[in-house]
Amino acid sequence: MRIAMAGLATSHPYADARTLARHGELAVWEPDAQRLATFTGEHPSAAVAGDLEELLARDLDGIVLTVPTPQVPAALGPVLDTGVPVFINKPAAATRDQLTAIDNLIRPCAERVLSSSVLRFAPAFRDRVIDPADVLAVRATVRHDVGIWATGYNPWQDTPGEGGGTLVTMGVHGVELLVALLGPEVSLVGAAGAIRHYDTLRSEDTGVIAMQWWGSGIPGTVEVLGVSEEESYTVTVHTRTGADEIVIAGDLGYEGTIDAFLAMVGGAPSPVPWEQTRAILDILVSAREA
C-alpha cells in the first residue's frame, strides 16, 4: 500500500502517518523545510517529492491532503485527478468561495473523498444512535486551547478570511458531532465570538453556534471554549426524562479515522456522505459570516 502525505500544514498528518506507516509505504511533499525535517526524522524511509506534481505522479493507493485551507481548492483538483481515495484534513473549507470551489470538484466523485473531524470515529461516539422523536435539544461543548495561535503559530488558521479562526477550526468538532447524530438538514440560527483571554488572537477564543434542524425543529448549540487546561468534547442530548451526556476524551478517534480511510483504499465508499460534510462546512462558513 502506498499512501501520499500531500502537505503537513497542521499536527494531524503526523498522527495520521504513525498509523498509516504500519500498513504500507509513505511518500510526502511539504514546502516548509522544518515541517518536512520533522516528518522525515520520524519516517526516514518515506519517499520525498519536490513538489505536489511529483508526488502525484507516483503509483499511489491513497492521498492524505493537508495544506492550508486557502490552498485546498487549487491542490484538490490534481489530487482528485489521480482517481484514488482522498482524505482531506478538516476543515476542508472556511469561506464561501472555498466551499463553492471544492463542492464543484468533489460532487462528481464524492464516494472516494472523506473529510471529517476525527471525533466522529471516537469509540465513545461512533456507535451512538438517537431517535430524533425523543430529543428536545442538543448541545456540543468543545474544549480545546488555542493559546498556541496567540503566539503567532500558523496565523492562517487564526485568520477568519483564510482558515476560519477558532469558530471554524474548533467549531467543526461540535458541528460534526451534532450533524452525525441528527443529519444534514440543518441551518444556522446565529453565532457569536469573543476574546476572553488571548488578546493577540486574530479571531476569538470563545464562541457559540446556534442551529436548527428543518424537519424536526430540534435546536442545537455548539459551545467553543478555546481557553482550557484540558482537551475534551461533550455532547448533551436533552429529552423529556433528562439529559444524556457523551464525553469524548482520551481516544479521540485518530486511528478510527485512518481505519475508515484505509477501508476506502480497499474499495469501500466514503463512510461520511458528502451531503453531511457539505452541511457541516456550510454551517461553519455561515457562522463565520455572521
TrEMBL record:
Task: Please give the InterPro entries that the UniProt record associates with this protein.
Answer: Gfo/Idh/MocA_oxidrdct_glycsds (IPR050463), GFO_IDH_MocA-like_dom (IPR055170), NAD(P)-bd_dom_sf (IPR036291)
Span of domain GFO/IDH/MocA-like oxidoreductase: 134-242
Q: Which UniProt keywords apply?
A: Oxidoreductase
GO MF terms held by the record: oxidoreductase activity
State a single Pfam family of this protein.
GFO_IDH_MocA_C3
- Which PANTHER family does the UniProt record give? BCDNA.GH03377
- Name the chain's protein: Putative dehydrogenase
Organism whose genome encodes this protein: Nonomuraea soli
Q: What is the lineage of its organism?
A: Bacteria, Bacillati, Actinomycetota, Actinomycetes, Streptosporangiales
